[in-house]
């Protein structure tokens, strides 16, 4: 393989923006970028958005020039993903682009068919609510995955440091001492090289990065086939009223369906239907779900297999897997893309901290420590949801409510996950807080190290999260009493000392007072860029910034109030 000339590699004619840092050609003809993101699906786009939030340039290599509206896949964007979109400043943009507003429906309906009997409903499913809730900054959103990808693409298009090379694909990686040399093919098939300090393998289940770092999936596939259909039926409606999903159970044709938009485009999912049969009988199957003849046109079909796979390693050297390149779970419950976004945020802020010089590369080792447990819980929960598919359920409301509640109400999983036990989180003083999150349905806000910072609304109506910095934030009684009018009260002495220690280490530290009534208002919570609590202390002097940034290992014995002092 020969390296193309710099002029050719920088000048490949694709509909892309190329950031200035990424355009600089190296001496061997390779294009340089701090971070190469292989794959522009949800994980890759989220990683680029997070890097951009921190001002880190990156290059996204993505073969698809257009998103695939006929293959909508994810519809559930979780509360947690919406909170990340809010951090990137685009939550409202996604809501504006979503064809179904949250107010339109927050319901999943089980029925004998769209024209048949209602069996039962789940309200407030998937974190959908129109009421402000203290526990989160954003409700969930039903929106087809291609719309999410389009919003993220447009956002990145406006981020000067994010270069998107659409129509290009990664073919190989080679380790160098201080970088990774990535072989990329442009849309004409010509190879060129990119030298990156870090590579994020966000290229999904069929990408190349996993193999290139010698990782392999461990797990299994569900033997049952699945068949999805997108169809147009402008006149189709149902006496059952609005719902984001209709599950049809107990009859000859079972499955689920819902609107992709309010202009007559629908999706249907048919578990157990094999691709050949589905293709030949798609219309019949749709009519079966509707329960009566209804004019419709099949637009696309999409056979898929549910898989429970987790890679045996998430990284090697400077290369990290995020999203489906690292793990695949059945879609039941709507967690795959959301978990992928969680991975992307976790590794991207850490790379940003290392690139900005306020954390050493050892911080990156915590990525797999923190995400593997979340991923495994997600796979287990999705597999458990898969035990009761439409064809397995009787037309019995009580049975359905018992069996399906965790699929539609999973705040314990979505918000209750914790990074406790991570080497860069204060060691837990009490019992494992992750155990408290074992109930995937229930979320109880907890200010334990590792947990997502309990949310609150500020007196001015903003979210507490809007006041956190992009580096670390110290939340607590940071100032000495109230200030005279027009003045700012002085910092508490130990807070000033912590701020000084942060300054010495180049750590960006934001100081923030919690809103009145915040249950942990008397304590100090050190919060990371991803809104997780790194440290909880009654005295800021006890906070070990070197542990949190990966500079020093945590002391093995955990304490909250009497830790060693740090000079
Ligand atoms: C029927 C169905 C319904 C689903 N519903 C939900 C849901 O409601 N909620 C949810 O959270 N998840 C859902 N999912 C899962 C979700 O679709 C995936 O988890 C998500 O797409 C994973 O994102 P990703 O970016 O990791 O991978 P992908 O979306 O697979 O993206 C990988 C990207 O890498 C690119 N790529 C591939 N090879 C290369 C290469 N060599 N070089 C560069 N780029 C490459 C691909 O073109 C692609 O764009 C559903 C899945 C299915 C099948």
Task: Report on the architecture of this protein.
The protein has 567 residues and is an alpha/beta fold. It has 15 helices and 22 strands. Strands 1, 2, 7, 8, 9, 10, 16 and 17 form an 8-stranded mixed beta sheet that branches. An 8-stranded mixed beta sheet has the order 5-4-12-13-14-11-15-18, with helices on both faces. A hairpin with a 2-residue loop joins β8 and β9. α3 packs parallel to α6, α3 runs parallel beside α9 and α9 packs antiparallel against α10. It is globular. The N and C termini lie far apart (53 Å). The structure holds flavin-adenine dinucleotide. The site of flavin-adenine dinucleotide has 34 residues, from α3, β2, β8 and α9.
Question: Which helices and strands, and how do they pair?
Answer:
Blueprint: H1 6-10, H2 20-23, E1 31-38, H3 42-53, E2 58-62, E3 76-77, H4 79-87, H5 91-97, E4 107-111, E5 118-123, E6 141-142, H6 145-157, E7 162-166, E8 169-176, E9 179-185, E10 191-201, H7 209-212, E11 217-232, E12 245-248, E13 255-259, E14 265-271, H8 275-290, E15 297-311, E16 315-316, E17 319-321, E18 327-328, H9 336-355, H10 366-385, H11 397-408, H12 411-414, H13 433-436, E19 472-475, H14 493-504, E20 509-512, E21 524-527, E22 533-537, H15 545-548
Parallel strand pairs: 1-2, 1-10, 2-7, 4-12, 10-17, 19-20
Antiparallel strand pairs: 3-6, 4-5, 8-9, 9-10, 11-14, 11-15, 12-13, 13-14, 15-18, 16-17, 19-21, 21-22
Bound molecules: flavin-adenine dinucleotide.
The site of flavin-adenine dinucleotide has 34 residues, from α3, β2, β8 and α9.
């Amino acid at each position: 393989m020969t390296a193309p000339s710099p002029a050719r590699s920088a000048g490949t004619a694709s509909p892309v923006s190329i950031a200035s840092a990424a355009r600089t050609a190296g001496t061997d003809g390779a294009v340089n970028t701090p971070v190469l993101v292989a794959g522009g699906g949800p994980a890759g786009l989220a990683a680029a958005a997070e890097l951009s939030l921190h001002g880190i340039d990156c290059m996204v290599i993505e073969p698809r020039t257009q998103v695939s509206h006929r293959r909508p896949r994810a519809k559930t964007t979780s509360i947690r993903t919406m909170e990340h979109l809010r951090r990137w400043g685009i939550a409202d943009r996604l809501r504006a682009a979503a064809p179904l507003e949250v107010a339109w429906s927050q319901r999943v309906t089980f029925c004998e068919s769209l024209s048949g009997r209602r069996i039962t409903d789940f309200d407030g499913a998937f974190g959908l609510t129109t009421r402000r809730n203290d526990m989160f900054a954003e409700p969930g959103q039903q929106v087809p995955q291609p719309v999410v990808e389009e919003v993220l693409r447009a956002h990145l298009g406006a981020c000067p440091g994010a270069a998107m090379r659409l129509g290009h694909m990664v073919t190989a990686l080679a380790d160098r001492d201080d970088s990774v040399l990535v072989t990329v093919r442009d849309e004409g098939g010509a190879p060129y090289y990119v030298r990156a300090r870090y590579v994020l393998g966000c290229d999904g289940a069929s990408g190349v990065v996993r193999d290139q770092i010698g990782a392999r999936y461990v797990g299994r596939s569900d033997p049952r086939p699945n068949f999805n259909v997108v169809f147009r039926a402008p006149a189709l409606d149902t006496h059952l009223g609005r719902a984001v999903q209709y599950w049809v159970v107990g009859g000859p044709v079972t499955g689920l369906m819902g609107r992709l938009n309010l202009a007559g485009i629908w999706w249907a999912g048919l578990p157990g239907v094999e691709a050949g049969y589905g293709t030949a009988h798609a219309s019949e199957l749709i009519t079966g779900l509707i329960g009566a003849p209804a004019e419709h046109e099949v637009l696309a079909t999409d056979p898929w297999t549910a898989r429970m796979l987790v890679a045996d390693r998430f990284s090697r050297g400077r290369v990290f897997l995020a999203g489906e390149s690292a793990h695949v779970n059945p879609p039941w419950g709507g967690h795959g893309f959301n978990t992928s976004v969680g991975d992307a945020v976790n590794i991207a802020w850490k790379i940003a901290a290392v690139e900005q010089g306020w954390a050493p590369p050892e911080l990156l080792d915590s990525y797999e420590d923190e995400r593997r447990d979340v991923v495994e819980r997600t796979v287990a929960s999705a597999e458990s949801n898969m035990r009761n598919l439409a064809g397995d359920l009787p037309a019995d409301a009580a049975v359905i409510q018992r069996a399906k509640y965790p699929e539609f109400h999973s705040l314990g999983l979505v918000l209750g996950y914790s990074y406790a036990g991570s080497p860069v989180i204060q060691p837990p003083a009490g019992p494992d807080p992750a155990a408290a999150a074992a109930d995937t349905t229930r979320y109880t806000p907890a200010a334990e190290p590792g947990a997502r910072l309990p949310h609150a609304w500020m007196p001015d109506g903003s979210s507490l999260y809007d006041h956190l910095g992009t580096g670390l934030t110290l939340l607590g009684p940071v100032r000495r009493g109230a200030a005279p009018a027009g003045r700012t009260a002085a910092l508490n002495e130990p807070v000033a000392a912590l701020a000084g220690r942060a300054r010495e280490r180049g750590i960006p530290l934001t100081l923030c007072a919690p809103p009145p009534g915040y249950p942990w208002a008397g304590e100090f919570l050190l919060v990371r860029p991803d809104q997780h609590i790194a440290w909880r202390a009654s005295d800021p002097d006890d906070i070990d910034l070197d542990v949190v940034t990966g500079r020093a290992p945590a002391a093995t014995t955990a304490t909250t109030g009497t830790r060693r002092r740090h000079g």
